[in-house]
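Field log, afternoon session.

UNIT: design team B
ACTIVITY: writing a sequence onto a fixed backbone
BACKBONE:
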């Protein structure tokens, strides 16, 4: 998958140093993936969920570092691209405010 964008992941790692290794792991696995659907994503990241947001679009939520963080991304399977949208600690994710901005 082509990850859009790696600099955003680097920024998240700087903002959340405890999540740096989890973000690097996610990046290294994802950049070599050729996913065609959610089932293939879940084969590698079993706790990934598909969530409909306010705009009506569907995003994917990856649980990272033992559910301490959530990486929210839009996957375009047909284009082989994954857009990194947000990265949140679990406490912020649980407030559901993130759904309003997507």
């Amino acid at each position: 998958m082509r990850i859009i964008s790696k600099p955003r992941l680097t920024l998240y790692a700087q903002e959340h140093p405890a999540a740096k290794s989890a973000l690097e792991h996610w990046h290294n696995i994802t950049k070599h993936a050729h996913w065609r659907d959610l089932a293939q994503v879940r084969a590698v990241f079993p706790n990934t969920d598909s969530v409909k947001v306010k705009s009506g679009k569907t995003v994917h939520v990856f649980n990272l570092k033992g559910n301490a963080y959530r990486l929210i991304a839009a996957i375009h399977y047909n284009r082989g691209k994954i857009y990194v949208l947000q990265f949140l600690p679990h406490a912020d994710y649980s407030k559901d405010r993130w759904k309003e901005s997507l």
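LOG NOTE: The first strand starts at residue 2 and ends at 4.
NEXT ACTIVITY: expression trials, pending approval
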